[in-house]
Amino acid sequence: MSLKNNLFALALSTMIWHSPVHADEPSWNYADQDQPGGWGAIEGAETPPPYNYPYAECAIGEKQTPVEIGNVRKTPVNGVTFNWQPFRADFYNTGYAIQAQPVAPDAYSGTTKVGRDSYRLVQAHLHSPSEHTLNGKRYDAEMHFVNDRGDGGLTVVGLMIELGRPNEQVQLMLDNTVNTPGSPTHNPTRIVFEPKKLLPRGTGSGKFFTYSGSLTTPPCTEGVNWYVYEKPITISSGQLSALKAFYDGNYRYLQQLNGRQLMTNK
Ligand SMILES: [Zn+2]
């Protein structure tokens, strides 16, 4: 931490995550992580101090994602039930990842139940290589399923991806996402995407790791409930190459646990 970063960290220590990040949010890129203060030091153009650091949470947050999944504690913990229906997909190149989401999100009824809480599946996207590491291993890719409780609460389900048999749902994403890296482009289609087919057999009762973390992209919002499954899914080497042709290196660096205890169900 530089002096400058310490100063702005002090200034922003009472800032909450949903402070102004609006239409004028500044752009960022993965290489910014190498700069002092990382994404937290990116200044906004039109907001006065101390709010001119709209991504401050990325630097001063203490419950950030991703993390190394190594030291875990087996404990009774809420399980996950996936009630994911197929949906007509909008294949979205966000500028940072390729993503599949329902063309009609309000009409989509696919839900993820965590304990008694029901979340709606809103989108699935890919990082390569993986963001989490598992016992020090970084996988070829990682898929994130973002689920929204409707009151700001988020659960993200992470699946590790390694090389093996090709994956037909990933292929749909590769085939139908507009290839304009760095330029957000939607491609709403009539193609039916079946997110449940991405889950390894028995995923709901499979071994997972859970902890409280954040979004892995600016504004790095905390309070995100993470479930990362131990069993990886596979894509072919050709699919990995095609994925990397969109984005190669769209992963955030590992973050400190700062006292958090990762929990596992098995
Ligand atoms: Zn992600």
Description:
The protein has 266 residues and is mostly beta strands. It folds into 2 domains: 58 residues, no CATH class; 197 residues, Alpha carbonic anhydrase (Carbonic Anhydrase II, Roll). 12% of the residues lie in helices and 33% in strands. It is built from 4 helices and 15 strands. Strand 6 and strand 7 form a beta hairpin. The chain is globular and about 50 Å long. The N terminus is likely disordered. Bound molecules: zinc ion. Zinc ion (ZN) binds next to strand 7.
Sum up the overall morphology in one term: globular
Largest sheet: 12 strands, mixed
**Cα-to-Cα separation, first versus last residue:** 38 Å
Q: What low-confidence regions span 5 or more consecutive residues with pLDDT below 50?
A: 1-23
CATH superfamily of the largest domain: Alpha carbonic anhydrase
What ligands does this structure carry?
A: zinc ion
Cα Rg: 18 Å
CATH-defined topology of the largest domain: Carbonic Anhydrase II
Helix residue percentage: 10-25%
What is the number of E strands? 15
